Structure formats: structure tokens, C-alpha cells
């Protein structure tokens, strides 16, 4: 007589006459949790129908239920095994925040083994503790987000009260993130690794070799819900790896016109960042007090902690500062964007260190090339940590820190640059000795242009990092 629960937000137990209802393990049964959620859908309209309906299913409703039916002096019982499946999750395009139209939002969920969530599903997720300060599309063309701990910029229409915020029904061409609902796993998720990690292409090949394929974001959420716990970053099918970083010419600060800025990013394995990508990086905590070109020919910089000479047009309010649209011949730094690792980056060293030429030769001897600055940022995003300054393709000297310690970049995570002079300017003589960072893969770089002979001098390590943390440079 019992019907299996569906992945809507309710299920029905068909019984007759009087019914005593409880979880099979009474010590875990809390009647108050079911108040206003249980109804007899047919009784008394149909006297012989005592079907019970439970609405607004939550994950903790899973379990074995016992239903006992009494008719006069006779009674009977049966048990129902209820497994509430599915999970609601927030999804953002890998490029940046708020880029999905309504149709693209639905497609993004489908590509990640899910469907766009309903308001009822988001409400149920909120009731179970889901908190996310990001507006996202739902199936009814509304835009909402769940907030348990209200704070400034997350108040929405409910101000300081917890609850699901709503923007109401929106135009389908507006862009937001999306909330997806994944129902059940069609296979089994597992983690695999190698001593040298995988590029995206290698990860695809490794999964294929194991008779599998890269998991989607939805499948990873389902595996997590089923208890998967692995503290290692890994590729998913949507290539979710990206990083925005600040880049400066070796000759000094503010040296690129708009066209040179684009070429500079391309020369280091990246592209010039868009305003939306810089905004997304800022929202992830990126702080950099250096004005840089963006794709739309504006000049901007992200400030998390405003201070004198970094206040810009927003004064003491955190946010991305803008100089607006600038003439293409003006000179600034540039913000670059990289969304994938083009091979395997590895560290190389010798007892005496390498000159730039020796570093190039060493990498070539390993069937590799010197890594670009973009490559080092991409591998940093994957967790690479090496407190050793090394040559890169553009003749800069940098190192990657994910586990901050005081002796390595002043205790800040990010890519740290070693300049010639203590004021964070100047490039090293090509005969200076450092380690090297090489990249092995199908993308092998060569530097066709760049700085020639440069003044020599002893190195001075900068205590600043481009990437996840700030800099002591001040805007002039």
C-alpha cells in the first residue's frame, strides 16, 4: 500500500481508517518536526482512505517509518523505507559571477548532472541550513538566495531577518548565478591522483583509462552528501580553474599602453581580464593597489581594505576602483586572466643555481620549457607551494606560496616577485643565479621578444604578492 517518495517535496502513505505513524527508531522520532507537514489527503471525503501525506521533505526525514492501522479490535501495520534524495547547490560559470541568462542557467545545471531548482527545493535547503549570499535563477524565473546570518550587502528584501531573499520574477535576459538540484548519482564518484598531479587533459585521460569520466559539479555534490571527504583539489568536467592576476613590465611600473597590455598577457600564457572577471576576483578577496588595463579599455584596481592613496573613486568603501575609459596610449599595468593549466609545472634547482640561459637549457633538456607567469599562477591556484625564487619565461623571478609563513613572502599567500631593488623595481641581470620553473606538456613556449641586457645587482625579495593578497605599492 505505501507509495515510494518522489523527489517533489512530499510523499503519500495509503492506509485505512485510524493510523498510528512514527519512525521505526522512536528514540529519534520528534513529533514537533512534523507539525503542519502531515495531512490525511482523502479522509473524511473518502471514509476508507486514510492516506497520509508528508510535505516539505528534508534530508533528515530519511528513515524507516511504521504505520499501524486500527479498525475496531483489529489492527495491522507495515513499514516504509523512505530515502529522501537530492541536493540543492549554487553554481557559477567558471568565467565570473552573474553571467547566466535564464536559458543559460537551465543549460548549466543540465551540463552538471542536475536541473534548475524550484523555490520549494531552495526553501527546503534553507530549512536544513543552506546559506549563500549569491543571487541565482530558479525554475519559476525568479531570482533568490538563502540567508541565515544577515549582514550588510546580503539583507535583500528581508533586512535583518533570516530567510530566502527574492528579487521576484526577472527578465530572462538578465544575468545571475543559478541554483541547481541534483537528484541521484548515476554512478560512483571516486578520487584519483598521481605524484605530479594532472593537467585537465591528463585528468580526462586517466578517468577514461579507469573506465570512467570526469565528474560534474552536481555529481561531486551528491558524492559529498553521501559522505565523500577528500582534502585534495581536483579537476571537474567544467574545468573549474581560473585566476586573475596583476602583471607589470620588467622595465617598471605603469609601462603598458592598451595594446601592449594585451600582448603582455598573451606572452605569458594568459589573456587580458574583463571587468567582470576582476569583479569576481575582488569578491573572492583579491586586493591590489595598482591601476591596470582591462579588456574594455577601462583602468581599474580591486581594494578590499581601503587606505590612503588607494581609496580611488569609492573613497573609504571597499570595491573595484575605476578610472573609466582611458586613451589607448596612456600607460598602466595590466590585469591578466588564465583559466587552465597548459601542462605540468615543476621546480628545478642546482647547487649554484641557474642563469637565465642555463634555466632555459635545463628545461629543454627535460623536454620542457620555462614556465610562463600565467602557468605559475594557474598551478598556484591548484595548490602549488614552493618557497624558492625561480626564473620564468618573461625573465622575471617569482615563487608560489599557498601555505603562508613569515620567511616566505612575509606570511602572505600568492605569487611573489623578486625584484632587483628594495623599492620593488628593476629586473635581474640574466647572469644572476636562481632556481627555475619549467612546464612540460603540449604547449612549449619560446620568448621571441623581451628585454635584453639589464643592469646587474644583488636580489631583493619583495614582501608583496600578486594574486590572493595585497601589495604595499601606492597609487600615484
From TrEMBL:
Residues 1-22 form the signal peptide. One of its GO terms (molecular function) is hyaluronic acid binding. GO terms for biological process: cell adhesion; central nervous system development; glial cell differentiation; positive regulation of neuroblast proliferation; skeletal system development. Residues 449-476 are annotated as: Disordered. Its main location: secreted. SUPFAM superfamilies: C-type lectin-like (SSF56436), Immunoglobulin (SSF48726). Disulfide bonds join 133-154, 289-310, 387-408. CDD domains: Link_domain_CSPGs_modules_1_3. Residues 87-182, 187-241, 243-338, 344-440 form the Link domain. It is found in: Secreted. Keywords: Disulfide bond, Glycoprotein, Immunoglobulin domain, Proteoglycan, Repeat, Secreted, Signal. This is Aggrecan a. GO terms for cellular component: extracellular space; perineuronal net; synapse. It comes from the Eukaryota. It comes from Sinocyclocheilus grahami (Dianchi golden-line fish).
Amino acid at each position: 500500500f505505501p507509495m515510494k517518495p518522489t523527489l517533489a517535496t512530499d510523499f503519500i502513505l495509503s492506509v485505512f481508517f485510524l493510523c498510528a505513524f512514527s519512525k521505526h527508531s522512536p528514540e529519534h522520532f520528534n513529533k514537533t518536526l512534523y507539525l503542519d507537514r502531515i495531512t490525511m489527503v482523502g479522509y473524511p471525503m473518502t471514509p476508507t482512505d486514510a492516506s497520509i501525506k508528508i510535505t516539505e521533505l528534508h534530508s533528515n526525514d530519511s528513515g524507516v517509518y511504521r504505520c499501524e492501522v486500527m479498525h475496531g479490535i483489529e489492527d495491522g501495520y507495515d513499514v516504509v523505507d523512505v530515502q529522501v534524495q537530492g541536493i540543492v547547490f549554487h553554481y557559477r560559470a567558471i568565467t565570473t559571477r552573474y553571467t547566466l541568462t535564464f536559458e543559460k542557467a537551465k543549460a548549466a545545471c543540465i551540463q552538471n548532472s542536475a536541473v534548475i531548482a524550484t523555490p520549494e527545493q531552495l526553501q527546503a535547503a534553507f530549512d536544513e541550513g543552506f546559506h549563500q549570499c549569491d543571487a541565482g535563477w530558479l525554475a519559476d524565473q525568479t531570482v533568490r538566495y538563502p540567508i541565515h546570518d544577515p549582514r550588510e550587502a546580503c539583507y535583500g528584501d528581508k533586512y535583518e531577518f533570516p530567510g530566502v531573499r527574492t528579487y521576484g520574477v526577472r527578465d530572462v535576459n538578465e544575468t545571475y548565478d543559478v541554483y541547481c538540484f541534483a537528484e541521484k548519482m548515476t554512478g560512483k564518484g571516486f578520487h584519483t591522483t598521481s605524484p605530479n598531479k594532472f593537467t585537465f587533459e591528463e585528468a580526462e585521460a586517466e578517468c577514461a583509462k579507469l573506465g570512467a569520466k570526469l565528474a560534474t559539479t552536481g555529481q561531486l555534490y551528491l558524492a559529498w552528501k553521501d559522505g565523500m571527504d577528500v582534502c585534495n583539489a581536483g579537476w571537474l568536467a567544467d574545468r573549474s580553474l581560473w585566476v586573475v592576476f596583476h602583471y607589470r613590465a620588467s622595465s617598471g611600473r605603469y609601462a603598458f599602453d592598451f595594446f601592449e597590455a594585451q600582448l603582455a598577457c598573451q606572452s605569458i600564457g594568459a589573456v587580458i581580464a574583463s571587468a567582470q572577471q576582476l569583479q569576481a576576483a575582488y569578491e573572492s578577496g583579491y586586493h591590489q593597489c595598482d591601476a591596470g588595463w582591462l579588456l574594455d579599455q577601462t583602468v581599474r584596481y580591486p581594494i578590499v581594505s581601503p587606505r590612503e592613496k588607494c581609496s580611488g573613486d569609492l573613497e573609504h568603501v571597499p570595491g573595484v576602483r575605476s578610472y573609466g575609459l582611458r586613451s589607448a596610449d596612456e600607460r598602466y599595468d595590466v590585469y591578466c586572466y588564465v583559466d587552465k593549466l597548459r601542462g605540468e609545472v615543476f621546480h628545478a634547482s642546482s647547487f649554484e643555481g641557474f642563469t637565465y640561459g642555463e634555466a632555459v637549457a635545463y628545461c629543454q633538456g627535460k623536454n620542457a620549457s620555462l614556465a610562463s607567469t600565467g602557468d605559475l599562477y594557474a598551478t598556484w591556484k591548484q595548490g602549488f607551494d614552493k618557497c624558492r625564487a625561480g626564473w620564468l619565461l618573461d625573465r622575471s623571478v617569482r615563487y608560489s606560496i599557498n601555505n603562508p609563513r613569515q620567511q616566505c613572502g612575509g606570511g602572505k599567500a600568492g605569487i611573489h616577485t623578486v625584484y632587483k631593488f628594495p623599492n620593488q623595481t628593476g629586473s635581474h641581470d640574466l647572469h644572476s643565479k636562481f632556481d627555475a620553473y619549467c612546464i612540460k606538456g603540449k604547449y612549449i613556449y619560446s620568448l621571441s621578444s623581451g628585454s635584453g641586457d639589464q643592469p646587474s645587482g644583488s636580489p631583493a625579495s619583495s614582501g608583496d604578492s600578486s594574486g590572493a593578497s595585497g601589495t604595499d605599492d601606492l597609487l600615484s
